[in-house]
UniProtKB/TrEMBL annotation:
Name of the molecule in the record: Ferritin
Family: Belongs to the ferritin family. Prokaryotic subfamily.
Keyword vocabulary terms for this entry: Cytoplasm, Iron, Iron storage, Metal-binding, Oxidoreductase
Function: Iron-storage protein.
Gene3D superfamilies recorded: 1.20.1260.10
Primary localisation category: cytoplasm
The protein's Enzyme Commission number: 1.16.3.2
Amino acid sequence: MLNKEIVAKINKQINFELYSAYVYLDISNYYADQNLNGFANWFKIQTQEERDHAMLFMDYLLQNGEKIVLSDIKAPSFAFTDFRQPAMEAYEHEIKVTASIHDIYGAAYEIKDFRTMQFLDWFVKEQSEEEKNTDEIIKRYDLFGNDAKGLYLLDSELAARVYTPPTLVI
Ligand code: FEO
């Protein structure tokens, strides 16, 4: 059994991860609509990763005999006007996800819930990757994206991303 506050926070995180999947799906759809299919591919794979994150949190609750409570997933309401904005939105979104995971970690730390802390270690590391990856897209866009040929090459590079399942096994 886990502490009730931790369970509530993890249930909230499940919703946040599913919302993240929605955010990236919306971004992927925007790029696909703009014929930037490499960007669209990258963000569609990001959607799959977010779904995986939600599943891992669910598996953790199940493994500990706790109840999963699913709640409504908010629809994203972006109105992008240039190609850079979605990447920036993604980066800022990841900062919020990191803060949310740190919040659960902090609560677990307070009550000496070492099991949850150990489970969250993977996510703490994963978040530094998530922030780095989205920040890299912005930086590369700033370097190459304003030139048609550069944008084409960047899009081709992002088209090469393939989905890999998470390394964490519950
Ligand atoms: Fe599940 Fe991108 O954080």
